[in-house]
């Protein structure tokens, strides 16, 4: 199995079974993504035709033979030999899982770790059945662990909200039979929050992660809507409503999660804003991870200012 994705300016392919990691260029990424399974000896004509709208036929064929070389060397689409480790894994139960329930997002943050939600692989939502299979897997591979943790992550999980609810309901319906207790978390940018999903989150989710960067000017410089506007005014009142209701209920944990960049090395002001002005006292503001060529990337010369700010 090959897992390929775009992250922080890099096109990456992980050959899961061999553990080989390949840094690709865009053309190799596009070509590799045409294949779900082993590469045939010759590149299929329809794929060459399709890609030749963007690249020269000669380059495609040359690149294909390089990918084939990696495959022949056991570094792409390598054999699945995990079976021989099954006995070893029996004593190592899993207790938590992160479901990428939505590879899509309704924001376009400049520093997005996920290539604005889809990890460079096309915008998709996880089918409910896949989520239910994940629940079954967790139930049957968690040994005698009683408490199981499941995070709904994206992209933006609320874009696949009906699936989230169905998967939660399914998991709850299995708790008694398996003697397990699920603890759910959802991470959201808040754009789609409304009274219905706020109440559901506060009832069912043990924790909720609320993404925001602090002061309006800081947030709106990086966290943009699809049409390029600032997002602060859209989600802040919704986050405040969620937290206000949450603190009156049983599940009180939440955290406001911000990112600072080179543009706001005075990020303590954003911490104060989130805590004092917005009233969120469970929070974390962390440095951006970015391609060093990005203008907002943190570089070594920023470190003294960052240490002082901490
Ligand atoms: S909200 Fe998250 S997933 Fe969406 S664009 Fe921003 S950083 Fe990316």
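-> sequence recovered:
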């Amino acid at each position: 199995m090959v897992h390929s994705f775009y992250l922080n300016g890099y096109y990456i392919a992980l050959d899961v079974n061999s553990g080989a990691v390949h840094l690709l260029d865009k053309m190799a990424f596009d070509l590799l993504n045409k294949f779900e399974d082993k590469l045939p000896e010759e590149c299929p004509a329809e794929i060459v035709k399709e890609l030749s709208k963007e690249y020269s036929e000669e380059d495609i064929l040359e690149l294909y033979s390089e990918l084939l070389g990696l495959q022949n060397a056991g570094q792409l689409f390598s054999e699945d030999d995990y079976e021989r480790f099954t006995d070893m894994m029996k004593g190592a139960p899993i207790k938590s899982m992160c479901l990428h329930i939505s590879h899509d997002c309704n924001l376009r943050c400049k520093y997005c770790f996920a290539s604005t939600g889809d990890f460079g692989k096309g915008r998709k939502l996880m089918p409910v059945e896949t989520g239910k299979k994940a629940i079954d897997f967790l139930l049957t591979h968690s040994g005698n662990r009683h408490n199981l943790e499941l995070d709904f992550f994206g992209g933006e999980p609320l874009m696949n909200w009906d699936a989230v609810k169905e998967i939660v309901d399914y998991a709850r319906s299995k708790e008694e039979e398996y003697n397990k207790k699920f603890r759910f978390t959802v991470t959201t940018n808040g754009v789609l929050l409304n009274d219905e999903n706020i109440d559901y989150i506060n009832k069912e989710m043990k924790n909720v992660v609320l993404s925001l960067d602090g002061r309006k000017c800081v947030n709106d410089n990086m966290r943009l809507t699809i049409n390029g506007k600032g997002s602060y005014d859209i989600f802040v009142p919704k986050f405040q409503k969620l937290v206000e209701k949450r603190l009156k209920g049983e599940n009180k944990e939440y955290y406001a999660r911000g990112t600072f960049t080179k543009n706001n090395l005075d990020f303590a002001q954003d911490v104060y804003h989130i805590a004092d002005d917005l009233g969120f006292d469970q929070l974390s503001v962390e440095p951006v991870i970015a391609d060093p060529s990005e203008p907002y990337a943190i570089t070594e010369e920023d470190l003294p200012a960052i240490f002082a700010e901490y």
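The chain has a mean pLDDT of 95.
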